[in-house]
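Run log, item B.
One chain of 176 residues. Sequence copied directly from the ordering sheet:
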Amino acid sequence: MNLRKIFLVATVFALGSCATQPQGVDDRPRKAAEDPNVIAMQEVNYKLAKQTPTQMYRSMKLPSINYDFDSIRPPEYAYPILDNVVTVMKEKGNVHLILEGHSDILGSDEYNYWLSGARASALKSYLVSRGIEADRIRIHAYGNTRPITLDNSSEGRLVNRRVDMKFTKRLWKSVY
């Protein structure tokens, strides 16, 4: 009789655990190379980085700039993109720029907020040094609160260390 009860309880647990998660659903974080968010972002950034200033203005979309570990210095590939941003902003006085800084998971929350803001500030400083008015650029620091991937490998952390750039035609006083 005890053996029959044990078998019945084991069967109920086995069937119950199968019913809790639909087949094919996997909640585990994916590797950055397999994460559809990362793949999509990399494809979009590749296309956006090749835009001319005219195409940037028409699409109003800009690529993200990824950073080395614990660095606030923009990578070398970012300077031609930033020069195109300068061209657009000089030609179109109604365009403003939003810089959103992000960091990876390593480090304290306070440090990551500072680091993400410092990365965005470094880009703003470069743009201002090229003749863009500082009040046309806004900075938002998000630290590690808005990751693209949950993969904590070196590849995943690299994807999350970024500054997202966005053009806007809205007046600062009306929205920001």
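Observations after the first pass:
- The domain at 32-169 is CATH 3.30.1330.60 (60s Ribosomal Protein L30; Chain: A;).
- Confidence is low (pLDDT under 50) at residues 19-26.
Flagged for discussion on Thursday.
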